[in-house]
Amino acid sequence: MIASTLPLSQCTARTWPVVVVGAGVAGALAARQLAQAGIEVLLVDRAPFPRWKVCGCCLNRRALETLAAVGLGSLVGDRGGIPLYSLRLASGGKTATVPLPLGAALSREQLDATLVQEAIQAGAQFLAGTQASSRGLVGEQMRQILLHQGEQEATIQTRVLLAADGLQGQLLAREPGCEVVVRRGARIGAGAVGDEAPPFFTPGTIFMACGAEGYVGLVRLEDGRLDLAAALDAEQVRLQGSIANTVARLLGQVGWTAHLDLSALTWRGTPPLTRRARLLAGPGLFVLGDAAGYVEPFTGEGMAWALASAVAITPLVLQAMDRWHPGLAHAWQRRYQDLLGGAQRRCRFVTGLLRSSWMRPLLVHVLAHVPSLARPFVP
Predict the structure, then answer these.
(1) Is domain 8-56+108-183+274-348 classified as CATH 3.40.1400.10?
(2) Where are the domains of the chain?
(3) Residues 6+ away with beta carbon under 8 Å from 159
(4) Among the residues of the chain, which ranges form H helices?
(5) pLDDT tens by residue, 8-25
(6) Strands 152-163 and 15-21, how do they pair?
(7) Is 333 left (phi over 0), alpha (psi -120 to 50) or beta?
């Protein structure tokens, strides 16, 4: 367990320069970068750490490059991350094996907890098991946040609030204009972890089964477990009766159910994946990571986007320490689009192909013969 670095009662004794809500990869890395810059940071998360997340655990080349650029290039290897070399894509009776550039698989328990520890070592304070909700502006310069920890409650103030509380976050639920827009037809996320990975699912390969119901990816973790992460059509889940049944149908179509005891897995789901926040920034507020927007991912893109946004936000927060001005909000909007817009459009294109009943098997057939065609779409 990673303990809180201070009791809730002590948080009210000061005005915090920066409060980061959400200690996933975006929030924890942003807190670390700001603490290294000499800023007093409070990092808050509703969960105790380490914790599992309904999310894939694949880090693609861009994610690893971002970690290396901030001095964390050895993090994944030091934690036993498994290098990824190939993607095995299956649909119906067809299978294609596509080579991957540099990548790695590391459980979210390990990755997120390590980033939190890095933030603490850099000087950030950490509150685990703590719910946070924004109470808006106090005057022109401060934001007020209500914290709940068990039966305890405290109200704190900060000059800058970073909302990195993910797809299911409620931090900004009471903030006017901070609604989330969900794309029509967006798939839901689902995840589970098997205690042991059958030999069929070899280390170093992402196995991905695609069908009308969506797709499910399977990958070996550093401790021998098997991580399963899916993007599923909500109507198909309703028709099949459960997430587990929908995943079983997907895997059965490609002949992989014989290698798994699906009845032993506990599945968790997420809200619809493809979404965007109406507001990415406002007075004393920046939204980043999955809370800013998400597109149904393919092979580790979501992790790369979260890490990149954490690094990109740091200089704008440092500017906001002196004085907030509207140009900071416009700057973050532009920076976010420049940084992630192209990658998210590429993801929409690939997942759109995989949704097509006639294009999906054709795509797998073509990649089976010319796997190099996938190179522009596998970052």
Answers:
(1) no
(2) 8-56+108-183+274-348, 75-104+184-273+354-377
(3) 15, 16, 17, 18, 141, 142, 143, 284, 320, 321
(4) 25-36, 61-69, 75-78, 108-122, 234-240, 243-253, 301-322, 326-355, 359-369
(5) 999 988 899 999 999 999
(6) parallel
(7) alpha
Question: How do residues 354-364 score in pLDDT, each as one tens digit?
Answer: 777 777 877 77
What are the tokens at 82? 């498994």
Q: How far apart are CA 108 and CA 50, in angstroms?
A: 8
Q: Measure Cα distances from 151 to 20, 147, 292, 348 in Å.
A: 22, 11, 30, 43
* pTM of the predicted protein model: 0.94
Average confidence (pLDDT) over 262-273: 87
| Residue appearing with tokens 């779409």 | 377
Q: Does domain 75-104+184-273+354-377 have CATH number 1.50.10?
A: no
What's the confidence (pLDDT) of residue 376? 59
Query: Cα–Cα distance between 251 and 257 in angstroms, integer?
Result: 5
Residues 6 or more apart whose Cβ sits within 8 Å of residue 126: 2, 4, 5, 23, 42, 43, 44, 45, 116, 119, 120
Q: Which of the residue ranges 40-49, 134-143, 353-362 has the most confident prediction, judged by mean pLDDT?
A: 40-49
Tokens of 272: 């619809």
What per-residue confidence (pLDDT) applies to 347? 74
Q: What is the pLDDT of residue 241?
A: 93
Residue 300: partners with Cβ closer than 8 Å, 6 or more residues away? 56, 58, 59, 60, 63, 103
